[in-house]
Amino acid sequence: MDGNGRWAVKRGLPRLMGHKRGANRVKDIVKASTELGVDTLTLYAFSTENWKRAAHEVEGLMKLFRGYLQNNFIELNAKNIRVKFLGDPTPLAADLREQMEKLEDLTKDNTLITLNIAINYGGRDDLVRATRKVAAKVQDGSLAVEDITEQMISDHLDTAFQADPDLIIRTAGELRMSNFMTWQSAYSELAFVEKSWPEFTPEVYAEVIADYRARTRQFGAIIPKGVTGAE
Ligand code: IPE
Ligand code: MG
After folding, report:
1. Ligand positioned closest to the Cα atom of 8
2. Which mutation among 19, 21, 51, 180 tests ligand 1's pocket best, with the greatest number of atoms within 8 A of CB?
3. Are 118 and 42 contacting, i.e. CB atoms less than 8 angstroms apart?
4. Cα 21 to ligand 2 centroid, rounded to whole Å
5. Which residues are catalytic?
């Protein structure tokens, strides 16, 4: 969800106003996802690197996050949305962690869409925490080193038992992965859009999805001529 800061600065507004506008985009994009047939949407809200920002910006982002949870807690459940938080919650405020746990628990059996909210998430950190979990099983004797598989690593990540992302969309013209789903993105399709997150409307989203659907995915294989629908 990149480009909030630039969106604001360009309009002579404080960066936090951009984050606020960005947070307001979320509801529309979740709704659009259900209409576009997206079964899992992940929003990368705060990375393990974002703590390096000025204290007031970090505080502002946390406040927005808290507000989002408060304002949408009931509605997310009422709309049959399953919410899952990705990332290490340990450094987050206790009240936030409590709300996150409650919301995950409340919505765990919902079926319309899975909404992953990545907060204090880093792809490398995800892998480190998964590695620790797997290593602990080796250490206690319940797992042999030779039995470690790719699937097992996947199942110890924050996205355990979810499919790898089909499509990763980067907003605001950025051309890098920024420590997002390092393991899970091995075969993800990528889309780069110039629009900043506050300008990422359901219409822009629909165009990106249509473009993605027109692609042929081979996952490293070669598809014989004349065969379509690689998925
Ligand atoms: C939002 O955009 C990303 C978050 C950490 C929420 P940025 O704050 O990175 O916006 P730019 O890149 O400065 O425009
Ligand atoms: Mg940025």
Report:
1. 1
2. 19
3. yes
4. 14
5. 2, 50
Burial class (CB in 10 A: 0-12, 13-18, 19+), 90: exposed
pTM above 0.85, yes or no: yes
Residue 131 tokens, joined: 């590695």
Euclidean distance between CA atoms 169 and 29, whole angstroms: 13
Domain coordinates in residue numbering, the chain: 4-213
- Taking the C-alpha atoms of residue 172 and residue 196, their distance in angstroms, rounded to an integer, is 4
Contacts of 91 (CB under 8 A, 6+ apart): 51, 120
Going from the Cα of 3 to the center of ligand 2, the distance in angstroms, rounded, reads 5
Question: From the CA of 80, how far away is ligand 1's center (Å)?
Answer: 29
- pLDDT for res 231: 45
Q: Token digits for 101?
A: 């746990």
Torsion of the alpha carbons at 103, 81, 197 and 179, rounded to the nearest 10:
60
Tens digits of residue pLDDT in 96-143:
999 999 999 999 999 999 999 999 999 999 999 999 999 999 999 999
Can you name the CATH fold of 4-213? Undecaprenyl pyrophosphate synthetase (3.40.1180)
Query: Is 55:79 a contact under the CB 8 Å cutoff?
Result: no
Q: What share of the chain is helix, strand, coil (3-state, %, to 5)?
A: 50, 15, 40
Residues with CB under 6 A from ligand 1: 1-6, 19, 22, 45-46, 50, 61, 172
User: Which ligand is closest in space to the CA of residue 15?
Assistant: 1
Is residue 3 left, alpha or beta, with left meaning phi > 0 and alpha meaning psi from -120 to 50? Answer: left
Q: Whose CA is nearest to atom 6 of ligand 1?
A: 45
